[in-house]
């Protein structure tokens, strides 16, 4: 049996940067071959080079990295990714449904096309890919799935109304699948990161908000490490760092109106000043 056939195989969407890249790095460094998928082929190529370098620094050798560029907000983009997965000729041992985007601002003023695309990527694409890969996992009664939700799923999200709703969907979608699959060999975990040092706030147009301008954001490497460990341990949900655990517990316990005000103060445009 070849090394490729012996190594487990992981697929990470949104794997070219941020939390997704760090998730891919953890898999590579723990002996997995990894396929990373995102829209920009140039970014994927750069990420694959960095991941390959990380694997090469390991004395025992890490896994191999392949890329697939596709627009996962499109049905044909997800179908193309699944075709690439099948073409690898190997079962998916771990699937990280991590690709996503955000948009901040008053809902009455934000761009509808961007919000519909957000729903297509964060929700519809996640459901489509999960359905396709999960059927294969069920057929062999083995596999692990991680959904990247957000601490935003613990409260109403003024000024991120659509983004927050997509993350609520992913939280409870993952938890529901976990229960459906509880008597199988398939594990499902939900990652609920807090404010993390990625390009998210820039892309979401939220650099002028209190949360976007805040210092002390979480390191995506530490977030990914917590997620990787949770997957391996079969835990249902992971909220990285103590401050986020406290915030999640508090907002879950508060009346929705109060929790919404907490988020409003953080995400309101101009609140950074």
Automatic annotation (TrEMBL):
Pfam families: adh_short
Annotated CDD domains: SDR_c (cd05233)
UniProt keywords, alphabetically: Oxidoreductase
GO MF terms, alphabetically ordered: oxidoreductase activity
Signal peptide limits: none
UniProt family annotation: Belongs to the short-chain dehydrogenases/reductases (SDR) family.
Protein name stated in the entry: Oxidoreductase
Organism: Methylobacterium durans
């Amino acid at each position: 049996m070849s090394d490729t056939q012996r190594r487990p195989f992981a697929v990470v969407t949104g794997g070219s940067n941020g939390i997704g890249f760090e998730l891919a790095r953890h898999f590579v460094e723990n002996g997995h071959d990894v396929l990373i998928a995102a829209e920009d082929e140039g970014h994927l190529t750069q990420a694959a080079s960095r991941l390959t370098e990380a694997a090469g620094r390991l004395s025992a050798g890490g896994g191999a990295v392949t890329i697939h560029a596709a627009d996962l907000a499109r049905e044909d983009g997800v179908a193309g990714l699944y075709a690439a997965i099948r073409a690898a000729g190997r079962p998916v041992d771990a699937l990280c449904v991590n690709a996503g985007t955000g948009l901040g601002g008053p809902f009455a003023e934000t761009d509808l096309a961007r919000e519909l695309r957000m729903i297509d990527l964060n929700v519809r694409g996640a459901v489509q890919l999960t359905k396709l890969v999960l059927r294969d996992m069920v057929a062999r009664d083995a596999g692990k799935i991680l959904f990247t939700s957000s601490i935003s799923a613990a409260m109403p999200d003024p000024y991120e109304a659509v983004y927050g709703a997509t993350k609520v969907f992913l939280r409870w979608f993952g938890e529901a699948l976990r229960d459906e699959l509880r008597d199988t060999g398939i594990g499902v975990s939900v990652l609920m990161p807090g404010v993390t040092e990625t390009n998210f706030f820039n892309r979401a147009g939220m650099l002028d908000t209190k949360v976007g301008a805040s210092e002390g954001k979480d390191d995506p490497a530490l977030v990914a490490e917590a997620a990787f460990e949770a997957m391996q341990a079969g835990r249902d949900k992971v909220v990285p760092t103590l401050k986020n655990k406290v915030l999640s517990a508090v907002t879950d316990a508060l009346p929705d109106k109060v929790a919404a005000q907490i988020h409003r103060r953080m995400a309101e445009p101009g609140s950074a000043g």
